[in-house]
Amino acid sequence: MVSRLGGLPEAPLPPRPPAMRPSQTELWLGLALTLALLAVRWASAQAPIYVSSWAVRVTKGYQEAERLARKFGFVNLGQIFPDDQYFHLRHRGVAQQSLTPHWGHRLRLKKDPKVRWFEQQTLRRRVKRSLVVPSDPWFSKQWYMNKEIQQDLNILKAWNQGLTGRGVVISILDDGIEKDHPDLWANYDPLASYDFNDYDPDPQPRYTPNDENRHGTRCAGEVSATANNGFCGAGVAFNARIGGVRMLDGAITDIVEAQSLSLQPQHIHIYSASWGPEDDGRTVDGPGLLTQEAFRRGVTKGRQGLGTLFIWASGNGGLHYDNCNCDGYTNSIHTLSVGSTTRQGRVPWYSEACASTFTTTFSSGVVTDPQIVTTDLHHQCTDKHTGTSASAPLAAGMIALALEANPLLTWRDLQHLVVRASRPAQLQAEDWRINGVGRQVSHHYGYGLLDAGLLVDLARVWLPTKPQKKCAIRVVHTPTPILPRMLVRKNVTACSDGSRRRLIRSLEHVQVQLSLSYSRRGDLEIFLTSPMGTRSTLVAIRPLDISGQGYNNWIFMSTHYWDEDPQGLWTLGLENKGYYFNTGTLYYYTLLLYGTAEDMTARPQAPQKVTVPSPSWQDSALSPASSGGGSTATHSSQ
Ligand SMILES: *[C@@H]1O[C@H](CO)[C@@H](O)[C@H](O)[C@H]1NC(C)=O
Ligand SMILES: [Ca+2]
Ligand SMILES: [Ca+2]
Ligand SMILES: [Ca+2]
Ligand SMILES: [Ca+2]
User: Fold this and answer.
1) If DSSP codes are grouped into helix, strand and coil, which group holds residue 362?
2) Domain P/Homo B: where (predicted)?
3) How many Å lie between the centroid of ligand 1 and the Cα of residue 476?
4) pLDDT on residue 96
5) Is 605 helix (H, G, I), strand (E, B) or coil?
6) Whole-number Å distance between alpha carbons of 288 and 18
7) If pLDDT is split at 50, 70 and 90, which confidence band does 237 have?
8) Looking at the chain, which terminus has fewer C-beta neighbours within 10 angstroms, N or C?
């Protein structure tokens, strides 16, 4: 083993410690020292163990090294670097391992005028970067992160780099949090907590016979259950601080939502929410004015201007053919919406497909599929956490790991990173498509399964995204009858700021804002095709939505055009997929493009289809965060 190169001095150095004259006294001393060292070794295992190798620096290179070797009985094992200065000498007559240096050789080498520096080698305590697996008894049940399956959330890879969410604060907006739970109390953060149902600082859940207020406690444990405490499992970001906002166990108003989403925005980095309008397949509803304002303030002012991260569950309305683009919370550009997949990589029965989903993590499936392990009410542990609301906290924990790797990431940086760190992996869907920049994307999964190892690697070296630009293009503004199948085309050329410079070269979110009436809303499918040929469904048919209300100033969102060039022909499609005699009127339609002036495709691409990392866990040495100026990016808002 070569010694630490960084420590090699340039100038000749006296050997350390100063050479001793091996007198009788000193031999006794040496023996005493040996015994003492043995004792120390027993005590601490920290004492150096000397081996029979020397590194020697000589002035005249190979010849000198040969001469020394012959003179003192070493074997010259040759140069250490190819520059003929440092040589590796080994002595056969010296014990393979010893607790003391060889005083005789030390003295002789020190006296030789041609030797500029030398050091008898010691064994270095080096631990292979092998998997440090939490010792928690239920970690073996955490199949989505313990490498039981080949392509899991790849969280061990991030942990292995020492990333555990330290310094990151997450709050779960839900029905409370059991703050004295044995797996939560150590990470519990009262500053990230509040009770907006009873207006007090204590978010302890209200206990009922059916334990219906267990949801927040379960979500909290996924993010930040304590590791290595002999209890339950481990959270994804098990050193992150975790708080809970009790807000779902009472009358929910725009005020309650807005206050919850803007609790301590300079203290809380990530809010995880797994709620929204009814998933009944016939509701079209979104945040009220105050809650929209809370989102806007969060992303512009929260986290010292870097932007609060709102992680959102995409919805559980699969059974009712619900569509998460009819939910204005997941649908918002300010929330990072997370879908679910089963252990087998299937679309779960409760899953809602829509174009605004970014990414996917694991959750439950049919009864025989394993579920999510986490903390439960009454100081318990459960392996029965389910649904899309189990997926969002896993993503929130992974994003905490990314924030620890690079705390300067803005809310938009994180969305860019999540797009790049999601992989189709083994996820099965009928609608995987390759978009205009070569990424696979699906309405069930967004860009695929989120990979924590990839996410933190990309986060470290991410260059800040340029400011967000917005371009609003009024396409239809006079009432137009909706035909059974209608295409509305718009050639987008003038997305510039008046000068010649183009405002948006690379897209982020794309929205379609429209008002229309329709005899049966759920029968109308709406889709949008980009100039690069990417088609995403803005809303699929919802058989249970028999409303005659149409869409009133509704905003649909798609993430599928991420990084595409917006210039060219955009096509909005409206198609009657139900009752033959449906009729309606399109009152207006505005295309809203968001993005940046930078050509994001010119950045070095992270391969989306990364192969599974080798089991050696020997991580490549990525340089530490190179981005220094991420905090100055400005954002325009929705
Ligand atoms: C869009 O407009 C530009 C500039 O007027 C033109 O060059 C281009 O051919 C048009 N594209 C389509 C698809 O009509
Ligand atoms: Ca309370
Ligand atoms: Ca634990
Ligand atoms: Ca829904
Ligand atoms: Ca969203």
Assistant:
1) strand
2) 465-599
3) 19
4) 76
5) coil
6) 77
7) very high
8) N
Superfamily grouping for domain 165-416+435-444: Peptidase S8/S53 domain (3.40.50.200)
Q: Which atom of ligand 1 is nearest to the CA of 567?
A: 1
Which CATH topology does 469-628 take? Jelly Rolls (2.60.120)
Nearest CA to ligand 1 atom 3: 493
The CA distance from 241 to 246, in Å, is 17
491 lines ligand 1 (CB under 6 A): yes
* Apex 570 CA angle, 550 and 416, nearest 5: 95
Structure tokens at 572: 């909005």
Q: What is the per-residue pLDDT across 331-368, written as a single tens digit (0 to 9) for each? A: 999 999 999 999 999 999 999 999 999 999 999 999 99
How many Å apart are CA 285 and CA 221, to the nearest integer?
A: 30
pLDDT (0 to 100) of residue 113: 87
CA angle 408/410/413 to nearest 5° reads 105
Instruction: Return the structure tokens found at 545.
Output: 């939505």
Helix intervals (H) in 49-204: 62-72, 103-111, 155-160
Please state the atom number of ligand 1 nearest to the C-alpha of residue 491: 1
Q: Which CATH class is domain 50-122?
A: alpha beta
299 compared with 52, residue with greater pLDDT? 299
Q: Residue 320 has which token pair?
A: 């009712």
Per-domain boundaries in the chain = 50-122, 165-416+435-444, 469-628
41, pLDDT greater than 50: no
Tell me whether the omega of the peptide bond preceding residue 12 falls within 30 degrees of 0, making it cis: no
Measured over all CA atoms, what is the biggest interatomic distance in the chain, rounded to whole angstroms?
112
Mutating to test ligand 1, I would choose from 493, 496, 532, 570 the residue with most ligand atoms within 8 A of its C-beta, which is 493
Sort strands 194-195 and 241-246 into parallel, antiparallel or unpaired: parallel
The model's pTM is: 0.77
Atom nearest to 569 CA in ligand 1: 13
> Cβ(630)–Cβ(306) under 8 Å?
yes
Per-state percent for the chain, helix, strand, coil, to nearest 5: 25, 25, 50
Separation between Cα atoms, residue 382 and residue 219, nearest integer Å: 11
Determine the number of helices (DSSP H) and then strands (DSSP E) in the chain.
10, 27
Query: Which candidate, 192, 161, 165, places its Cα nearest to that of 179?
Result: 192
Q: Is the pLDDT of residue 624 over 70?
A: no
Residue carrying structure tokens 């259950």? 225
Average pLDDT, whole number, for the chain?
88
- Residue nearest (by alpha carbon) to ligand 1 atom 8: 568
Query: Which residues, 6 or more positions from 422, have their beta carbon under 8 angstroms from its beta carbon?
Result: 358, 359, 360, 445, 446, 447, 448, 449, 450, 451, 608
Helices (H), 363-421: 388-405, 411-420
Provide the pLDDT confidence category of residue 28 given band limits of 50, 70 and 90. Answer: low
Strand-pair category, 335-341 with 309-313: parallel
Catalytic residues: 174, 215, 389
Number of neighbouring beta carbons within 10 Å of residue 473: 17
Tell me the residues surrounding ligand 2 (ion) with CB < 5 Å. Answer: 195, 198, 200, 202
Does 1 sit in the ligand 1 pocket, CB within 6 Å? no
Q: Which residues contact 280 (CB under 8 A, 6 or more apart)?
A: 317, 320, 322, 544
3-class secondary-structure state, position 593: strand
Tens digits of per-residue pLDDT, 120-158? 888 775 544 455 799 999 999 999 999 999 999 999 999
Write phi, then psi, for 101 (nearest 5 degrees). Answer: -70, 165
Indicate if ligand 1 lies below 6 Å from the C-beta of 568. Answer: yes
Residue 616: other Cβ atoms inside 10 A: 10
